[in-house]
Amino acid sequence: MDIATSAGLALGTLADLALADPRRRHPVAGFGQAATALERRVWRDSRAAGAGYTATCVGTTAALGWAAARATRRSPAARTVLTAAATWTVLGGTSLGRAATVMHDHLAAGDLPAARGQLPSLAGRDPRGLAEAELVRATVESVAENTSDAAVAPLFWGAVAGVPGLLAYRAVNTLDAMVGHRSARYARFGWASARLDDVANWVPARLTAALTVLCAPLVGGSAAGALRAWRRDGARHPSPNAGRCEAALAGALGLRLGGRNAYGTRVEDRPPLGDGEPPVRADVVRSVRLSRAVWCVAAVAAVSSRSVLGDRWSGHPRAIGLRGRRSRPGASRAGSG
């Protein structure tokens, strides 16, 4: 059992629910600044250079998490505090919901310029000239996708690998946002970051879709609709992961997502996800409620599974049958979060 890490995951989740992201000196912003400084030194228009950059950034972050976890291996209280701090730092579920709610409030007030100014905090598409209907769709799609990226995925990796998993996942996801998009500068250099993010989110995205099916009735949605849209439409999306989350939410809330998205000079026409009508302003609130239900259930699952199966995942000798070897009192796997 790994009660200390489980308790840390629970406390970090509660901190996110109560406080959202740290408002000043956010460690993720510090990571972004360091990654940007390194990019200036190593950028080349090649996949090899990008792969080295990604490995350096993610590997360094994981190593710091491993060292911090190792330093607390003899103190359950210290490990709980460390895990709680790391969980709070990397979770973004509450901030996601608040950003979407701000968008809803701007639209309710009829303030389109403010709503367009809010969109970059939710989605990467160009907000200029977007009407309310497109701003609503962008917001609902962002809530669906980022329920996985901002909350379910870090909780999953925290349950799997403790503090190193939490920090490494957030590094991967941040690099994808920084350099993983398709542009003249990053088409080759950002390839490794984008592919690593796809790998890191493969299981969490499908877990998010499954939890959307499970949680749909809690917010007045349809579990059957969520399952049907996920299975039928999830693979239509250009992303191997985002489509599963968006399709499941669309089916759960009886919506139809997808359409034309502009990203600067690049335009994508995405296929429809779901069978219903396009989302309206009230559906932003519904999507936020469903998102919170999904990631709160994911948090309960992460805490419970780490508590019960922590030794198996951490590679502790008792978990792999090496009962003849005695470990020092209080010792545990180096790097277990």
TrEMBL record:
GO terms for biological process: cobalamin biosynthetic process. The keyword DNA damage does not apply. One of its GO terms (molecular function) is ABC-type vitamin B12 transporter activity. Pathway: Cofactor biosynthesis; adenosylcobalamin biosynthesis. It holds the Pfam family CobD_Cbib. Keywords: Cell membrane, Cobalamin biosynthesis, Membrane, Transmembrane, Transmembrane helix. It is a multi-pass membrane protein. It is found in: Cell membrane. Residues 318-337 are annotated as: Disordered. Transmembrane segments: none annotated. GO terms for cellular component: plasma membrane. HAMAP family: CobD_CbiB (MF_00024). PANTHER family: COBALAMIN BIOSYNTHESIS PROTEIN CBIB. Belongs to the CobD/CbiB family. Converts cobyric acid to cobinamide by the addition of aminopropanol on the F carboxylic group. This is Cobalamin biosynthesis protein CobD.
